[in-house]
Design brief:
Blueprint: E1 3-7, H1 17-30, E2 36-43, H2 47-54, E3 61-66, H3 75-85, E4 91-95, H4 98-111, E5 115-119, E6 121-124, E7 127-132, E8 137-142, E9 149-153, E10 168-171, E11 202-206, H5 217-226, E12 229-232, H6 234-238, E13 259-263, H7 269-275, E14 280-285, E15 298-301, H8 304-315
Parallel strand pairs: 1-2, 1-4, 2-3, 3-10, 4-9, 5-9, 11-12, 11-13, 13-14, 14-15
Antiparallel strand pairs: 6-7, 7-8
Helix pairs in contact: 3-4, 5-8
């Protein structure tokens, strides 16, 4: 029978919603032959995270391993511990976020298997679909029997799992020691108190038409009123207006907010790939022929420097 081990993503205090979406993916895979779903929580003083993971519907057990060298999200430290915990599991899953993309290739290498990336649909216990060519094509991937499935889950393609679970929490002593060749320097976040871009239900994004980093303050103020995350197109990032961790698109972050507001973004294919699963897309652009209007649910041709302040005024 299949057994699923999901690697929890967290910040040391709260469980990232991306983990919940992995549970939804695992539950779908389990629909093809059954299987138990467990979550591995690694860190230090993260019992609260383990309790949040245990509350997810469909989870059988939460494995909690705490140690000083696991306190920070360093793939070099976490990967050996994941491999040690993965013995006996047929599937090892993690979200296709910066965390998962950093960690799971190391896990796959240590297990001696190929990784399946960005699982967006499930055809069987070992058969999956994933996007390629900026989402213009979908490829079917099959993992042979007897080989562990190590896969990242495209979180934009899966719903948040219900929170009505009551899984057991099993404390599992860490079995690995610090590697010694990697050390944590620090973490810098450009988003302040705004929601994380990949878990925000509302996202406000700007493109090269903003013209400068100073002009992005217009979007920051609007986002704060909406309780939204802030993103940007690759053109805005390349121009130096915002840091690259705000980039939305094929080479940035793939997101699925309920509402996506795009200001001054023309709609290059690599950007559209990152927002194709958004609930409602609102686009504002001076160019009536901008490609983004082809996929927008609501489009407004106009000057963002007039429209954004007006929206902010209406919001009070």
């Amino acid at each position: 029978m299949n057994k699923f081990l999901i690697i929890a993503e967290h910040d040391g205090q709260a469980l990232n919603p991306a983990t919940s979406r992995c549970v939804s993916c695992a539950s779908t895979i389990a629909g093809h032959g059954g299987g138990d779903i467990d979550i591995l929580v690694l860190g230090e003083n993260v019992a609260a995270v383990a309790r949040a993971a245990a509350a997810l519907h469909g989870v059988r057990k939460v494995l909690l391993s705490e140690a000083a060298h696991l306190a920070k999200p360093l793939a070099a430290e976490l990967a050996p511990e994941v491999v040690a915990a993965a013995a006996g599991y047929s599937h090892v899953l993690a979200p296709s976020t910066t965390f998962g993309k950093d960690l799971l290739p190391r896990v796959a290498a240590l297990l001696g298997v190929n990784q399946v990336s960005d699982v967006m649909a499930v055809d069987g216990a070992r058969a999956f679909k994933r996007p390629i060519y900026a989402g213009n094509a979908i490829v079917e991937v099959t993992v042979p029997d007897g080989v562990a499935v190590v896969a990242t889950v495209r979180i934009a393609s899966w719903p948040v799992a219900a929170g009505a679970g009551n899984a057991a929490i099993e404390v599992r002593p860490a079995t690995t020691a610090a590697t010694g060749h990697t050390r944590w320097i620090g973490l810098q976040a450009g988003g302040g108190e705004r929601p994380d871009l990949q878990s925000a239900t509302i996202v406000v994004s700007g493109g090269r038409a903003l013209g400068s980093s100073a002009n992005f303050e217009l979007l920051y103020r609007l986002a704060d009123k909406l309780g939204a995350g802030v993103g940007a197109s690759r053109a805005a990032v390349d121009a130096g207006y915002v840091p690259n961790d705000m980039q939305v698109g094929q080479t940035g972050k793939i997101i699925a907010p309920d509402l996506y507001l795009a200001f001054g973004i023309s709609g290059a294919i690599q950007h559209l790939t990152g927002i194709k699963d958004a609930g409602t897309i609102v686009a504002v652009n001076r160019d009536a022929d901008a490609p983004i209007f082809e996929i927008a649910d609501i489009g407004l041709v106009g000057d963002l420097f007039q429209i954004v302040p007006e929206l902010e005024r209406l919001l009070g």
